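Re-running Alanine racemase to confirm reproducibility after the cluster update. Everything else is unchanged from the original entry.
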Amino acid sequence: MAVLRLYRDKLKQNYNHINQVFQDEGIDWGVVTKLLCGNELFLKEVLDLGVVEVHDSRVSNLKTIKEMAPDVQTVYIKPAPKKSISDIIQYADVSFQTELDIIRLLSEEAVRQRKLHKIIIMIEMGDLREGVMGDELLNFYEKVFELPGISVIGLGANFNCLYGVMPTQDKLIQLCLYKQIIDAKFNKNIPWISGGTSVTIPLLFHHELPKGVNHFRIGEALFFGLNLFTGETFEGMHDDVFELETEIIELTEKPMLPNGMLAENPSGHSFEIDESLYGKKSHRAILDVGLLDINPKFLLPKDESLSVVGASSDMLVVELGENKQHCKVGDVLKFNLRYMGALSVMNSKYIVKEVVSF
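Result of re-run:
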């Protein structure tokens, strides 16, 4: 059975590194845990780091977090569905919002539950996912800030989530200007400009982050140490907090090309024949994971001599060449994961989850 391992010490080193950077800059931040899909074993490791704020996109996960750590500030990080209003007020201390009608419902529910619900108004900054359009922001805020049970604690923006639009100094200065305009017009002081996600960290390191940006939401950099501008690992951080271990369930020397009339496979893929491979053979291993668990493009073999050929629903095929590793049935092959790969594996009930140290 395949196993996903979380290395506790590597996670702690990544957390301490990021936390020190933000402390030095006077920046507040929260850990984005949506990757963990509510897994209590892994959530405990995150909470044990001493985090004070946790972000997630599923109310059920925030409920779990509140039950495990009642004093941690929970943040719901997408616009609220109407059917989830009551639970969001109950389990999320803060939420990201973009729709006036939804905020009114949150206000009514917060009054019913005798709570003050904090919101961060998300602003559209070019990536065309969630966000209020900039030219509508003043009118939007005017209708929100006097609602009972609601406190606007921040303005925020997302980057690189849909079209890959990257944060720049100019875009973040624009975000800061929105806050300054609102503060001046309404005689308010919105505490946070939440312009920071993992993709924004390089701007901080290159001293290009506007001083007004004082809040970050970090997931990918924490779990993968990844610089999303360069694709490299940040110095002093680990890219292998997670490791997927799979078992070889068949290993046979086979032709490198299929034999027969070709059509689309069940995944909708059509294959072209590379005639240079006619007559050649290779050792192929079948592993005990498949598309139900992960898209192969998000797998990074620890043994760089092997290559992933493809996958069906429950089996993954890798090529071992001449099998100089002397692998055999029952042996295990290990993989590092990209973010979306880890997300899939975490969401698979067929993969065992374990916590280990170095």
